[in-house]
Amino acid sequence: MPVTDAIPQGLPIVTVKNVIKQFGRFAALRGVTAEFDGGRFHAILGDNGAGKTTLLRALAGLAQPTQGTISIFGKDPEAACRDIGYMAHPSLLYDEMSGMENLRYFAGLYGIAGDGRCEEVIRAVGLDPELARAVGQYSQGMRQRMSLARAILHDPRILLLDEPFSNVDVNSAREMVGLLRGMRDAGKTIFVVTHQALLLEGVADEFVWMQAGQIVDRTASIARAGVP
After folding, report:
1. Pairing of strands 158-162, 84-87
2. How buried is residue 170: exposed, middle or buried, by Cβ count under 10 Å (0-12/13-18/19+)?
3. What would the pLDDT profile of 29-69 be if each residue is shown by its tens digit?
4. Is 197 within 8 Å of 207 (Cβ atoms)?
5. What kind and span of H or E run contains 21?
6. What pLDDT shows up at residue 223?
7. What is the DSSP string of 192-225?
């Protein structure tokens, strides 16, 4: 899979400074400050309500911080959107269209001509570009794979994935982890929010632990963070 201007490992490409995100009186993020290196696999973990998805959406430019700043490649997330691939917990696919039709539509938004790239990413996630079935008839695992294909379609330098293994069988999840590991090894920077941390042991470069809207720990192994 092609790599566009991959960033060498060890250089911070994402900077978060004192980010607060409030929804009314509720603070989903409470003064988050962190730097994240490029070319690495960052797993974001924590209980429900810890702020994981809100942080991911803020990095994607979809949730404007109430206070603080986020810089991606030295730019505001909205300005860096071409470098970002975002996979939400919902699939964000059109159920009445086939997988190939979905990707053709999104390819048009990115100015990608022809079917070559669409076919490439569909095969990369383990699906068949010739499958004519509507996405609404896909299994949950197939929908997750197609959602990942949509996120990587424009060859982004950063991938932000929210619960990509949700309701996916173990073998399919492992295959998706293998694909993400290969992309990291090729120079991509990957952020994954997940409740299935054990899938990423030995794959993720770091585990970022969140609690009550704050980053409370960053470890190289889930074992050292007290996960059984």
Report:
1. parallel
2. exposed
3. 999 999 999 999 999 999 999 999 999 999 999 999 999 99
4. yes
5. strand 12-23
6. 66
7. EE-S-GGGGTTT-SEEEEEETTEEEEEES-SGGG
Query: Which amino acid is present at 181?
Result: R
Q: Which amino acid is at 129?
A: P
**Residue 219: φ, ψ to 5°:** -130, 160
* Nearest alpha-carbon partner for 138 in 109, 106, 187, 101: 101
Measured between alpha carbons, how far is 79 from 73 in angstroms, rounded to an integer? 10
Residues 6+ apart with CB under 8 A from 3: 155, 186, 187, 188
DSSP of 138-176, one letter per residue? S-HHHHHHHHHHHHHTT--SEEEEESTTTT--HHHHHHH
Classify 182 as helix, strand or coil: helix
Q: 69 - beta bridge partners?
A: 17
Sign of the CA dihedral with 67 first, then 51, 148, and 15 last: positive
Structure tokens at 217: 């720990």
- Other C-beta atoms closer than 10 Å to the C-beta of 79 total 13
How far apart are the C-alpha atoms of 94 and 92, rounded to whole Å?
A: 7
Give the DSSP H/E element, type plus range, for residue 137: none
**Which residue, chain included where needed, has tokens 């994402």?**
14
Domain parsing of the chain, residue ranges? 12-92+156-225
| CATH number for the domain whose boundaries are 12-92+156-225 | 3.40.50.300
Collapsing DSSP states into helix, strand and coil, what is residue 66?
coil
pTM for the predicted model, two decimal places: 0.91
